[in-house]
Write a structure and sequence with these properties.
The complex is a heterodimer of chains A (229) and B (233).
Chain A (H helix, E strand, L loop, with lengths): L5 H24 L12 H29 L2 H33 L7 H21 L4 H32 L16 H43 L1
Chain B lengths: L9 H22 L1 H21 L3 H33 L2 H7 L4 H31 L6 H25 L8 H9 L1 H15 L4 H30 L2
Helix pairs in contact in B: 1-5, 2-3, 2-5, 3-5, 3-6, 3-8, 5-6, 5-9, 6-7, 6-8, 6-9, 8-9
Classes of the chains: A mainly alpha (229), B mainly alpha (233).
């Protein structure tokens, strides 16, 4: 078994260091927001995790199509990795968003377009996982998975548009936007972008690890077949 | 069938599509398994709505469109599952795949028969709902929306049911796969239906009708393109 490549080891350490730096900046340096108070600090991680979820979503849609074109199982491993990371990070985003929304909007949840779309996206990914679990043949699993990520990848933007339309006709009292309605000062914006950069590095690290895991699992599977035959 | 040597006249393609669709309709005409279960199920859902939501006169006006679409969506999964399971269980799917026609012809044939079943159920459910709840559902706009909405539902549903019957979890899986990706159809269909039922201005309804048309076009095209991948052996 090959050990982790040098670049990945560097990324491991870099991820931890950068995450600690982000924590230090957010809790030590970022000014406390006047209206919302300390809870506003959740926002830096909320935006960054949403960004990672988005990266995973886009990666999954693209690699799914590449799999259908090439029929190379390598791309299937990459698609699953992207979906799993996106699933986890969108979940973190929703939880962080809720903890922020409770004191700011007075409710854990509203049926705002972005929230609703994120929830539906999670449902699509869970359905994707269930679909894969129900299929034994790896090639068919990969094909069906890729078709479903493609359908999901196209339906999610349409869903977002439809819910947005739904909301403009029936306006809600509670604020419809999280980020852009808040007055952000310059250091706040700087820390937000730093946080996004940090989580991008974490995304790459996790992505790499997950793809490696998929390849190793594949390898184990093949070795098992060799023993039994 | 090799690619690139396709010199068959296009009339053949439509004949294949109609043959697949006709086969389903003829089989259904004799057994009436699928339609009867879809119908009874729809009527039960309507009854359950009455008890669950206490549909008094005021509530009816507001939620008729929603109740109708929930009924159609649930009954639709029943029909889609059954229509594909029959193909799979009796080995008909393999037979269809062996036929020397383009695979997408099978998709369109199945989609047409599925759509026909869904529309038949809807045609019966609408007057029953009208009578039971004393609301007038005879409205050309509503009928148009039901056509467009059912088309979108079936175009994705036929593709996904072809996948779900080939998995271990089968029937259970279809609604889980289908419902999250047809949210736009349901949102738009419910809003447009209730718009027509409440006689809103056309300008308020058109956005929803347009959304339905866009969804139908996109997803029929995609299903057409990827159907090959879900029946490949």
């Amino acid at each position: 078994m090959s050990s982790q490549p040098r670049a990945l080891q560097v990324l491991n350490i870099l991820s931890v260091v950068l995450l600690l730096a982000a924590y230090a900046l957010v809790f030590g340096f970022a000014p406390i927001e006047k209206v919302m108070g300390i809870v506003q600090k959740v926002f830096y991680f909320h935006v960054a995790t949403a960004w990672v979820g988005m990266l995973g979503f886009i990666a999954a849609a693209i690699t799914g199509v590449i799999y259908l074109r090439t029929q190379n199982l390598k791309w299937d491993i990459i698609t699953v990795s992207a979906v799993e990371i996106s699933l986890v990070f969108f979940f973190i985003t929703i939880v962080l968003g809720s903890t922020w929304a409770r004191p700011s909007w007075g409710t854990w949840w509203t049926w705002e377009p972005r929230l609703t779309t994120a929830a539906i996206l999670e449902m699509i990914y869970l359905a994707y996982m269930l679909l894969r679990q129900g299929i034994d043949d790896p090639e068919r699993r990969a094909r069906f998975g890729a078709v479903y990520t493609l359908i999901g990848g196209i339906s999610v933007p349409v869903t977002f548009v439809s819910i947005r339309l739904f909301r403009t006709i029936h306006p809600v009292v509670i604020g419809s936007g999280g980020g852009e309605t808040m007055g952000l000062t310059r250091p706040m914006l700087g820390i937000m972008f730093f946080s996004i950069a940090v989580f991008s590095v974490i995304f790459i690290t996790l992505f790499w690890h997950r793809i490696r895991l998929g390849q190793l699992a594949d390898h184990v599977e093949q070795l098992k077949l060799k023993i039994t035959h | 069938m090799e690619k690139g040597t396709d010199i068959r006249p296009s009339g053949n393609y439509f004949r294949a599509v109609s043959a697949v669709a006709w086969k389903d309709l003829a089989a259904e005409l004799r057994s009436r398994e699928l339609l009867s279960s879809m119908l009874v199920f729809s009527l039960l859902v309507i009854l359950i709505f009455y008890f669950a939501l206490e549909l008094d006169v005021k509530a009816r006006e507001k939620i008729t469109a929603g109740a109708l679409w929930v009924t159609f969506a649930f009954a639709g999964t029943l029909g889609l599952n059954r229509s594909m399971a029959v193909e799979k269980d009796r080995g008909c799917l393999d037979g269809l795949l062996l036929a020397p026609v383009d695979r997408s012809a099978i998709y369109f044939g199945k989609a047409i028969s599925n759509l026909a079943f869904m529309l038949i159920v809807e045609v019966i459910v609408l007057p029953v709902y009208s009578v039971l709840y004393n609301v007038n559902l005879f409205n050309f706009g509503l009928i148009g929306v039901i056509l467009l909405g059912s088309l979108g539902y079936i175009s994705v549903g036929t593709l996904l049911s072809t996948m779900s019957v080939q998995t271990r979890t089968r029937d259970v899986l279809l609604p889980i796969l289908l419902f999250p990706v047809i949210v736009p159809v349901l949102v738009a269909a419910v809003k447009a239906s209730s718009g027509f039922l409440q006689n809103l201005e056309m300008s308020e309804i058109m956005a929803w009708v347009n959304l339905l048309i866009v969804y139908d076009i996109i997803f029929t095209a995609i299903a057409f393109m990827v159907f090959d991948y879900v029946v490949e052996e």
